[in-house]
Fold these 2 entries.
Entry 1:
Amino acid sequence: MKGLLALALVIAVICTADASRMRRRHRRIRTTTTERPTSEQLGRGDISEAEHIEHGMSESLDEKRYHEAEIARVNDLLNEVSNEENEDEEINMEDPCLKVHCSAGRVCEINEHGDAMCNCIKDCPYETDSRRMVCTNFNETWQSDCEVYRQRCLCLDNSDQCRGPQYHHVQIEYYGTCREMPDCTESEMSDFPRRMRDWLFNIMRDMAERRELTPHYLKMEREAESNLTRRWANAAIWKWCDLDAQTNDRFVSRHELFPIRAPLMALEHCIAPFLDRCDADDDHRVTLAEWGKCLELDELEMEERCDDFNENAEHYL
Ligand SMILES: *[C@@H]1O[C@H](CO)[C@@H](O)[C@H](O)[C@H]1NC(C)=O
Ligand SMILES: *[C@@H]1O[C@H](CO)[C@@H](O)[C@H](O)[C@H]1NC(C)=O
């Protein structure tokens, strides 16, 4: 009985935390939109629009770290409660979901045997913001990324809600509604590395202002502010490390490029061909040297300076 009570408490705490995080995220997205004035074409306008989507994306990558912090907090809380309730009784009440990280489109639920299961999300949050819509690899517009991941999950789990076998492989191509992508001209492409460098530095600076960088990257940001020769290189190194942070294998795979490609595609039609060029040897992985080269940075400046937080292996289901 007491066990059940504690379990209910844990679930309640997690749900409240999740809900408030959702609210925070939505609020953040709205405020950033109104703060920034849009300027002429290729300048801050498009880029800052993309930036806040990009921030949203990096937030979802941060979800893992956030989740870990939340687990620690809930565990503390639970220990307090059980200590207060009964000092000498050893209660080994742990929510099996606390240790589980489900992939996109899934949530952890406890089955009748008390085991953690990653099931398909039942209902995705209702989205009204058209920028939350996504275009898939089948050139179909979906309401949100959640809906796409949920559909893929349903197909993988052989649910009768799967719309067809091809949806096993549904992917998000970019954020926004599907549209005709203009070709990237030679002159647009030749200017793109410079704009990309600018953009990376601006994101890094914004994140520093909002105190969202680790101390290690904050130091690199300060250096980039004060030493012009380090400016683009530091921003490029930081982003490369950031993209690799999930696997930490010192390669940025095609999949790991998703957080910059998908949000930028709708605004910057050159991003896809640009990123293709970054993988110069076409092995589907971008090394730091390749990254520096396609951003037209001095290769001597591109020494690896990744922050090595996040070393713990996780249990994926
Ligand atoms: C994708 O869909 C959009 C909008 O329906 C259309 O304009 C575009 O031509 C399509 N692109 C491709 C590659 O079929
Ligand atoms: C700026 O960075 C360059 C390249 O790393 C370095 O050689 C130079 O000493 C730095 N300048 C200052 C003032 O720190």
Entry 2:
Amino acid sequence: MVLAMESLNRLLHCWILLISLLLVVNGQFPTTLEGPFKPVTVPVNYSIIGPVTSLPVNDNPPLSPEIEFQPQQISLSLSSDLSSVWVSWITGEYQIGDDIEPLDPQSVASVVQYGVYKSGRNNLAAGSSFIYSQQYPNEDPNNYTSGIIHRVLVTGLDPDTMYEYQCGDPSIPAMSEVHYFRTMPSPPKDYPSRVAVVGGLGLTYNTSTTISHMAANHPDLALLVGDLSFADLYCTNGTLCDFQNCSFPQSPLQETYQPRWDHWGR
Ligand SMILES: *[C@@H]1O[C@H](CO)[C@@H](O)[C@H](O)[C@H]1NC(C)=O
Ligand SMILES: *[C@@H]1O[C@H](CO)[C@@H](O)[C@H](O)[C@H]1NC(C)=O
Ligand SMILES: *[C@@H]1O[C@H](CO)[C@@H](O)[C@H](O)[C@H]1NC(C)=O
Ligand SMILES: *[C@@H]1O[C@H](CO)[C@@H](O)[C@H](O)[C@H]1NC(C)=O
Ligand SMILES: *[C@@H]1O[C@H](CO)[C@@H](O)[C@H](O)[C@H]1NC(C)=O
């Protein structure tokens, strides 16, 4: 309960943020370069915040890719070095249940083909892959093993430059669509002027709306400050369980329902 309330509070903060982002666009606020300014806080408009319902993942199976082992859940993240970017994705399906055989992470390559926008994807970076398994107490048949998680560090990038890329395994071939990203500008001369901060997104009927609002404001950088799927609020059979009030003292393991992670972006 405490956690649920906390996540509601986080959601409210998230709305405050989104509303202020919208204002930035509509009100033509000056950029931070013209600052410093006093922070502006927009009060929550409770009439646009209703009850938030988690997406029941068991009734909504994720869409399978057209080609087996085509990348899903592709994500980009900043590296410690501004000239490099991490590209991560998943291939294959997670498995949950009794007597499951994990996928072989070496069976699908981790390759990013990339180049400066509109000048061809002639560069190649390779990375690594792994799986993880979650073993539950023996009487619980719902052991879990993930799809293959791929991670590639793309290095040697120029600052403030648009790149295009595809990721996947070119030998299958099972490559993603072409996607794009812009690298961060190099300090101290310049820095990202529009930064979105979002947290406690959850996997709800409203999550896509929140992300669309954020994307519609074209942030240069999005900081995801945590609490995404709330998988730890679920029992291994996928039902919402109130673990947080310690009413399962005899449970040897903190249960979680990993498929809530696997439904992201699918
Ligand atoms: C709150 O949201 C509702 C619905 O969008 C809108 O009609 C109302 O004007 C808003 N109130 C304020 C104070 O912005
Ligand atoms: C779950 O995994 C554990 C550890 O590998 C194994 O001992 C157990 O038999 C598995 N349970 C099921 C139901 O597959
Ligand atoms: C959240 O999602 C529900 C279910 O789709 C919808 O009825 C509601 O209007 C949404 N809330 C907001 C604030 O968009
Ligand atoms: C799911 O598991 C929890 C914890 O073991 C149990 O209390 C609940 O009844 C189960 N729900 C279903 C639908 O099996
Ligand atoms: C804790 O969980 C139990 C069992 O679900 C429930 O009866 C009780 O009301 C909960 N306590 C609090 C403080 O939420």
